[in-house]
Queue: 4 jobs
Job 1
Amino acid sequence: MNNDFETLLNGQQFKKLYEKMSNIITEKYGLHKIEIEILLFLRGGTYDTARDIAENKFFSKAHISNAIEHLTERGYLSGRADEQDRRCIHLELTENAKPVCEELEKLRKGLADIIYKDITEEEKKVMIQVGKKIAHNINSELGTH
């Protein structure tokens, strides 16, 4: 396998850049990386339970539980029981989470600007298609999706 491609798949360079950029927000709001990821995930609006987070973000259930508790205590999340299954709690971002999420969106846009610099729209489309296929292949092999 090509070393540059393997490095890209491993994601260490991306993680290092993302961490560098997100440290400003984690320090400003006193949040952990997993809490930031949960806020961003819930901002998407499609999925809204701890189980959804675990299945899509691959965090441990214990870490997710602790993060949800901390975000709730800080006033960034609220929960409501599912009408069909009271054990299932749907998580919702509160008004207090809006400024944090807006800053996170700016951070993500800045990150995208950096990583897609000098990449054409056509190259981006191909990269996304190939990335989806690679993710599908990995998930199929792991039995995760």
Note: The two ends are 25 Å apart (CA to CA).
Job 2
Amino acid sequence: MPELPEVTTIVRILKPKILNKQIESIDVFYRRLILNEDLDNFKNILINSSIDDIFNIGKFIIIKLNNNYRLIVHLRMEGKLFFFENQNDLPERKYSDSCLIKFKDGSYLLYNDTRKFGIFKLESVDEGNSILNNLGIDLFNYNSEQFDKLLKLKNKSSHNVKQFITDQHIILGIGNIYADEILFKTKIAPFKTTKEISDDDFLKLIENAKVILKLAIDNKGSTISTYHPNFNEEGKFQNFLKIYDKKGEKCPVCGDIIEKRFLNSRGTSFCPTCQNIKKTISITGPIGCGKSTVLDIFKNLGFDILSLDTVVHTIYKQKQFIKQTANYFPSIIINEQIDKKTLIEKLKNPAFKKDFQNFLYPKLKDYVNNYLNKNYYKNVVVEVPLLFESNMDSLFSYNIGVISENQENLIKQRDVDYKEKLELNKNILFYKNQHKLDFIIENNGSLDELENKVKDLIRKLHL
């Protein structure tokens, strides 16, 4: 999504090209782009008007007309505004082209939007109910009274700091890319609530935000995927990014490995060491290898633990989950509850099993992701039997496998259906993905030996 640096760059490029130009016609190829209810009136007000100014307020582009109206543009995810000197320069029409403005001198302004989330809103400059109302402070132009209000809001808020600084009703122009960079530079965990952050540290965050945003503006923004400040031109600030979308790379400051989780549905990159975020561990392996025993050892050694089996039981009881399940798998709902016997029987059908896993696993992953975020200040160990099936391996600092030569005997001792469990073990993705694990613990000896192996691992990881 174009953020403040990208939008500012687009405005700077367009201003000398479209200032004082008179609009001859406007073609709207995608009706939902225009928020105004009356499309004919929208066009009539624009046609024959001329452009007095173009500027931005945060991520909003304001095109001020000479007839007491302004055209407000928000690019949303992938919107682009391109200027072309004449018709010969116009590229061949694409499905993503949403609007074309023709000026009386024969030049054009094209709005292109692959995702089609962008908006145009024409309104009077005196509009009392403007979409620009209630926007946050401009980091490059605020007074002491505004900043005092911001501090008070910060100290009352229970939102995490990343959510806080990307809320356009609080602070203008910061999106996902620059939020990660700003928090990294300030050495603040994105999962921390704002009221946990001192006023002095928050002031440092604001100052760092201005430094990063200015540098990004000077380099015409960041072209990560589709952003282009001008037709066939890219921004350059992506070459300066230190943390955003660099999962698995070494931190440029401390050398630790950069991690990534989701926060408020947005990918969030962070350095555990620089931002004081504790490491997380997954425990996985076949049935009967001793995963739960290893988890208990971690618990006894003072670690925060979570078992996915416990998570499943918790989710199964949630009313929202039961309601969603009833929509997709009504046969397993009895008396407004998930009937486990029916579910177990249904899971023997490969097609049903695949569909149910595709339904369940993303919800489990979200639960674990959110748990890790909430407990960022703790070393958390999670038992995830089907780590690779659920695609959770990317959530953790370390993925640890547990294996045992005594697996068959252990299953026999605790489960009458041991043959079925042994058969299940043959089909898990653990064996195909062992090379992806960071460590393997062999559980072939006594409990004391297993505990010593866990302690050795903890020392090795400096936890």
Note: The chain has a mean pLDDT of 91.
Job 3
Amino acid sequence: MNPLQLVFYFLIIVPSAIIHEYAHGWMADRLGDPTARYAGRLTLNPVAHIDIWGTILMPLMLFALSNGSFLFAYAKPVPYNPYNLKNHKWGPAMVAIAGPMANLLLAVAFAAVIRIFPTAPAVDFFYIIAYANVLLLVFNLVPIPPLDGSKILYAILPDSARGVRDFLERYSFFLLMIFVFFLFELIVPVIQWIMQLLIGI
């Protein structure tokens, strides 16, 4: 990834992460929890969502440590109170999946533009937007806290598997770091498969 691609990728993945977080707040609000709205986070204004570590410092560090082969960013998590949700079992999972689904919709939209206008001058830029959103989609569905996949997993797990949840919560930071730096390649084929499905190239 050259410096120009880094700039493009950074300008793409940060807004995509912001839309991701907005979707969480929007879904929580629809399900009965106005916390994000009262906190002024139901907005697409970047100022309300930028996290110094996740939006700026971590992406630059990952880019440097991976020699330009990997970059990831996240926006400040939107606050919500799960006890306000109408459905206490599936509500948190629905709020969680709203973020990745927003990224999927963005990826589908830009993939459709690529399919309709495959020779457009900005097709490479559209491809990066689609790829960034597929990356956010797949990565956030990994079932390690605080990623969205963990909330979905918790809704599926039976009460007898409480120990699994406790383990994931207790060692979440270490598990996430191990995944990012040593196991990330496991989801690359999934990302590539989705891109193939969306764009066909």
Note: The chain has a mean pLDDT of 89.
Job 4
Amino acid sequence: MSKYILVFGLVVLAVFAAACSSGSGGAAVGKTIKSGPAGNNLTATISNADGVLKKGSQEFTLAFTDVSGKPVDIGAAALTFHMPAMGSMAVMNNAATFTTTDTPGVYRGKADIEMAGEWQAQITYEGPSGRGKFSLPVTAQ
């Protein structure tokens, strides 16, 4: 009998842990890579499981929050990882693609970062919260 109680308890714990870490209820999902002002009293946060942007194909979350930290529906969002030309190296622009989540203002993104180094995450949005355009410096490893 005690084996069944233990198994039941472990199943309940696993379901609870999965629900708490699903990310559908919070703004940032995982660890913050970079956060900064997005205009109109908003903050934008780029995050992923590791809290690190890496060279190559990857997934991340882009979330917009108000001053109290609650997600804000900003409508459509776009992000391009931009690295200016250096010496003989041409300018690089790696665009992200987004899908919406169950939480308005929180987007799942995918991007392919060409190389490690210093990038500018150039973000634009337009919708119920107005229009905005801003950049966040990020480092890819």
Note: The domain at 27-140 is CATH 2.60.40 (Immunoglobulin-like).
